Amino acid sequence: MHKDLKEILLTEEQIKAKVKELGEKISKDYEGKDLVLIGVLKGSVMFMSDLMKEIKVPVSIDFMAVSSYGYSSETSGVVRILKDLDYDIEDKHVLIVEDIIDSGVTLKYLVEYLKGRKPKSVEIAALLHKPERTKVEVNAKYLGFTVPDHFLVGYGLDFAERYRNFPFVAVLKEEVYK
Ligand code: IMP
Ligand code: MG
Question: Ligand 1: which of 69, 132, 164 to mutate, most ligand atoms within 8 Å of CB?
């Protein structure tokens, strides 16, 4: 294990099994529907690419990039759109794919923003949720794991843009980000 990591919280195998399960649910729920997966860059990239392989109905994909953190490990509470959608989502079913619900601020903002584009529905697929830190109510219809309040990296999650490539989710040592 890399020296900056304290422990592995979710192994590659645990994540793979959960993603498969979520993919099966989504495949059933969206059978015969026009579904667009919207990945939130960059944290969702690994989850998005694994999840879409487990979805057995045809989907289209798009990405948005937002920022609420900068280079700190605490949310600023302000969401900025860095990259908007490439395609129109009017009358489509939208599933936002996100790495983690922390304060909930990002997803709450995104759901409201996307609803303004007149989709048929908007739901959330989030790999992780930290309930102890959640300040605003967001409802993820598809949720992978509930996790304790530690700063996590890997499987797309970063600290200052590093560690996204690790195929597992790990707890970052406090001395790295304090
Ligand atoms: P929220 O708006 O506070 O819910 O923050 C959501 C975003 O913060 C996520 O998309 C992540 O990019 C980032 N984030 C929250 N918690 C962590 C963490 O433990 N590790 C890495 N990134 C995190
Ligand atoms: Mg991030």
Answer: 69
Q: Domain segments of the chain: what residues?
A: 12-151
| Catalytic center residues | 102
Ligand 1 closest atom vs CA 109: 2
Reading the chain (178 residues) residue by residue, the pLDDT tens digits are 999 999 999 999 999 999 999 999 999 999 999 999 999 999 999 999 999 999 999 999 999 999 876 555 566 667 889 999 999 999 999 999 999 999 999 999 999 999 999 999 999 999 999 999 999 989 999 999 999 999 999 999 999 999 999 999 999 999 999 8
Contact 140, 22 (CB under 8 A): no
Query: How far, in Å, CA of 84 to CA of 165, rounded?
Result: 24
State whether the beta carbon of 44 lies less than 6 angstroms from ligand 1: no
Does 12-151 carry CATH code 3.90.190.20? no
Q: What is the rounded CA–CA span in Å between residue 56 and residue 3?
A: 39
Ligand 1 geometric centre to CA of 102 (Å) = 5
Q: Establish whether residue 105 lines the binding site of ligand 1, counting it when its CB lies within 6 angstroms of any ligand atom.
A: yes
In sequence order, the 6+-apart residues with CB closer than 8 A to the CB of 176 are 4, 159
